[in-house]
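Lecture 7, part B: from sequences to assemblies.

Below are the input chains for today's worked example.
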Amino acid sequence: MTVLALASVLDIRAAEPLQTSLMALRGQAVTLDASQVERLGGLCLQVLVSAQRTWAADGQSLTLAPDSAAFSEQWTAFGAAPLAEALGEPA
Amino acid sequence: MDAFEAIKATFFQECDELLADLEAKLLVLESGQTDSETINAVFRAVHSVKGGAGAFGLEALVRFAHVFETLLDELRAGRKPCDEITVRTLLRASDVLADHVAAAQGHAPEVDEARSAGLVAELETLTHGEGGAPVVEEEDDFGFTPLTIGLPSLDLPSLDLPSLDLPSLAAAPATGWRIVFRPHGRMYANANETGLLLRELGRLGPVTVSLDDSAVPSLEELIAEENELVWTIELAAAVDEVAVRDVFDFVESDCDLSIQPLGAGPADDLPALPDLGLPSLEAPAEAFDLSALLAAAQEPAIVKAVAPAPVEPTPVAAPAPAPVQAQAAPAQAAPTAPTAPAPATIRVDLDRVDRLINVVGELVIQQAMLAQRVAESGLTRSSGVLMGLEDLELLTREIQDSVMAIRAQPVKSVFQRMPRLVREVADMTGKRVRLVTAGEDTEVDKTVVERLAEPITHMLRNAIDHGLETPDERLAAGKAAEGAVRLAALHRSGRIVIEISDDGKGINRERVRGIAVSRGLIAEDAVLTDEEVDNLIFLPGFSTAETITDVSGRGVGMDVVKRSIQALGGRISISSVPGKGSTFTLSLPLTLAVLDGMVVGAAEQTLVAPLSNIVESLTPRAQDIHYVGGRDAVIRFREAFVPLVDVAQTMGFRDEPVTPGQGVALVVETESGQRAALMVDAIQGQRQVVIKSLETNYQQVPGVAAATILGDGRVALILDVDAIVANARRRPAAPELKLAS
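Predicted structure of the full complex, as structure tokens:
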């Protein structure tokens, strides 16, 4: 399984690099390492939502481990679906 | 300056405006008009300062602003009365807030901690009552560190309260808001962030955030910098719509936004939910305004002047939810506050304006030179060239006036700083003072405005410290205990006049004279008029304060004030009535850039007399000229005699005066109203000249205000009429002004 470490600041500047990194891992099971994330912005949230949708469509797993408190709190504050559902193993 | 510093500089610029607005609004409150709109405006000003400060990590400023804002929040909610004591405290708090801003900016030393802490305590007492425990929000984090919002506690099943059937609430004011928010990619590009806006909303009350991500495409179709997410936020708090809208103040043109009151639905019951255990949502919201400010700093002109852009078509996106688009326009166009629309403005670097003014100045000179060349070429007056030139002259003049108008600013910016000064000086001297201002909207060139602050400050200090009596003395003299100081600005004959008057004891002429004698400034037996005695206080080294006080005895005397005014081409005069008070009058040119002048010739020299001084010109006959004591020439003018001053002689261009019966007399009036006739050889014409400072390029010359370049390329001196007249009066036989030998 490939692990993709997320940058600590996921703001507008991180959105396109994050999308590119994820695209490069397309077609394989990926684990996102969010342990270093301090700030999650709206555009990176969108990339991750899109990735989750894409991975689900591909039938691949996109999981999150380990997490950081900041990441999960901000994720939830955005009103996004709980992480376990959003980024868990595809059914 | 890097981008961050530039944004910070803009923030401080905005702070200046916000603080000025804050004080102005507080003064409105002080006058007894405690309407909610004014209180809201005060709150917004402090809130905006705090928000920006948080963004830049200016913690001391944020902490103070926070306490300040908390009390204001109580006032605007009507939970605390906006009484006289409160308003006074607010005024002092605004002073300390300004100190914090100045310190943060590096323009001032550290803030007086004791004073700041004392005011914090006062504000908290007013907020929470005597002995009330101030809510110290230790969790407040004003930096950009990540949220630590305990969202598990945000589990708000109680928000779904269908069982709370409260139909009677239908007629009540909105007790909550449903906000549908779809940012454009541009909003993020402008350094704004949805997360911060959500946190800011959370500060207003409990929120339920839901995200509609249905429009987000697959990763390969996604454009990372465009946004397809739509947030719906239900805010369960009975706050003003303005407060909600304020959150989006800086991003409104970069998003689709709909703010609707929560209907008679279940959420209506939510104002009673402070116990819902949601304090964690009131976590550091300070960063929000920061981002908004950043956006404003980056594109202020666009933010202010451009109408909200339509929703941008995005190639990959499914359409955004219909209600958002449908409601966006009305939402943006419907501010609730009944404020007049602000005129569109842009910020322009002063350098650019100055460059424009310089170039226009050159244009005026070139135009004059061209006109002179054409005149010398012998073309007839009716020729097309001359007529075209006349049109060009009108146009040039119009351009120049318009450019000058760009630089014109109301003196309000200076006047607004004075109430604070008066409060402080009154506190230090134990006097009671009421400051009355008039004519704040009088406009004058920006350079003049900036350089007015110091002399006005000094003279106000003097007026309170030396002019006004203590309350006891005033009562004993049959006056009101509270002294009045009046600061007024007005336009008078092409100049701006600033008057500073007090109703104090007036100048003690005996004492002034005694001091002048003891310091060797005048001879013991000198015979001086009242006016001359009053003017002794402008002599260097004169100070009437027997002990140097903290207030005005700072080693800066009225002579420095006078010099700084003179350096601006202005004059200062004084009138005083014992027991009634004194009035200082400053008269300054409206601009330091151009002048309407009469071009005259005197002993082969070309000179310019400011038109504003000239009353009349005439050709005196030899018999009109009389000599007093066989020496001092006077001329009969409208049933009176006025002194005749030969300009060329006074300036040292020649030794003998112009032959009686030849030459032209310009009857001039000085600032103090004295009249004199300036004798010159001939009048060449009247024109607008561009002022070139002699001081900057050479040095100050007595009798000469400045210089200009004429149409033929020669330099002409601009006369300082007052100095020439004063000099001729004082020493008619021994001219002090000698420019040539």
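Note for the exam: Strands of chain A lie at 2-5, 9-10, 30-33, 39-40, 62-64. Keep this in mind when comparing with the next example.
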